[in-house]
Amino acid sequence: MAVTIGSPSEHAETDQKLSALVMSATKDMSALVRDEIALAKAELRRDFKQAATGGGLFAVAGMLLLFALIMCSFAIAYGIHAAGIGLAWAWLIVGGGYLLLGAVCGGVGLVRFKAIRGVDATKRTTNESLAVLKRTPR
Fold first, then answer.
1. DSSP state of 5
2. Count of alpha carbons within 13 Å of 76, Cβ hemisphere only?
3. What secondary structure letter does DSSP report for 43?
4. Which ranges of the chain would DSSP assign to H, the alpha helix?
5. pTM (2 decimals)?
6. Helix (H, G, I), strand (E, B), or coil: what is residue 31?
7. Distance CA 71, CA 76 (A)
8. Residue ranges of the domains in the chain?
9. Is residue 87 within 8 Å of residue 101, measured between CB atoms?
């Protein structure tokens, strides 16, 4: 089998073409990364504005619900008192109801927190990927 070797000028021309291709690919990758970062920033700005608006509205709703809770507590206590039970006992009944409701909510919250497992799947797949990369010859 005969191997033909081109002239040095042909090699230089090929090297220049290859160099131009590599530079073009590098330039395109840089532009792609910059565009992706710009897109991510724009999306994060949009999401932050929506989250801030939602958070502010939740704060207002929480304040209004707190005021409503106070008003309803008075109405319930005075309603129980109007039914013939002493005012002190009426307030104890309302307070006990809130304590019971708080205990139930706290218990459910505790159960939910204990059920949190973390990022087990992510840890596992990341460790698997690292193991594969360590085995790959360079």
1. -
2. 15
3. H
4. 8-82, 87-114, 120-135
5. 0.53
6. helix
7. 9
8. 8-77, 85-138
9. no
In 3-state terms, the chain is what percent helix, strand and coil (to 5)? 85, 0, 15
Q: Which helix (H) or strand (E) holds 6?
A: none
CA distance 52 to 44: 12
**Per-residue pLDDT in tens (0 to 9) along the chain, 138 residues:** 555 566 667 767 877 888 888 898 889 888 888 988 888 888 889 989 999 999 999 999 999 999 999 999 999 999 999 999 999 999 999 999 999 999 999 999 999 999 888 778 878 888 888 888 788 665
What is the rounded CA–CA span in Å between residue 108 and residue 23? 60
Q: Which amino acid is at 65?
A: L
3-state secondary structure 102-124: HHHHHHHHHHHHHCCCCCHHHHH
